[in-house]
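Changelog-adjacent note: as of this version, every example in the card shows the full chain rather than a window. The one below runs 260 residues end to end.
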Amino acid sequence: MVVQGAQVVSRVARILRIVSKHSPRGMSTADIATQAELTRPTAHRILISLATEGFVDHDKMLGRWVLGPELYLMGSVAAARYDITDLAASSVRALARETGESAFLTARRGDETVCLVREEGSFPLRSFVLYEGMRFPLGVASAGLAIISYLPDDDVAAFFSRHDLKEDWGPQHSRALVMSRIDRTRQTGWALNSGLVLAGSWGMGAAIFDAAGNPNWALSITGVESRYGNDRQPELGRLLLNHAHEVTQKLRSRYDSSRR
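Full-length structure tokens:
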């Protein structure tokens, strides 16, 4: 029974993550079942149960499932511990203003990253690869690369034992190539995504650390390739590192204050 119960929890969590990834547009039952690797009847039963509890909602006009109000209420309570947008918002705005690029705050969630905040820059050509709620595996996109680069080596090895990024993201995300990017990030301090998710869309990121020194968030910027030449990268990297350090210091100050 313990195994069965754990399997149910795993399936519920998987479905909620899939619906979250495709919000606010939502998904059909069939698409959710396919991505969750469940039969359609099983996925439908779980979705109905989640809807009864308010964790998902069904848009009958579109035939799509979206996140429900109960998750919003829970998230509001959890935000007191995990949300850092109040501390990072000014840095996201400053990065967009100072660079002209779209700027983002991203959080680590297990083996993935989730975009929390987006701020548009002034440059008219933009990249729309990243938006609020978008999830990527660690090691994919600049924010996830910045975060995984500062995990302990054992944690990085464990991640690659669970995931083969090249299966979903192509040969440019083989373990060897991602490890070479991790090495480069550790040398420079900032991560570079040179059009690896979408051709012509480049990004750079820098990790934000919690009070225990864990890289649980990242600031990043994205834009068109022509804006990320070798001559400009050091300047952008410096800005990212400065703002990431500023947010890290704010987090440590808040933690110290909470212990007094």
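Structural remarks: The chain has two domains: 2-73, 83-259.
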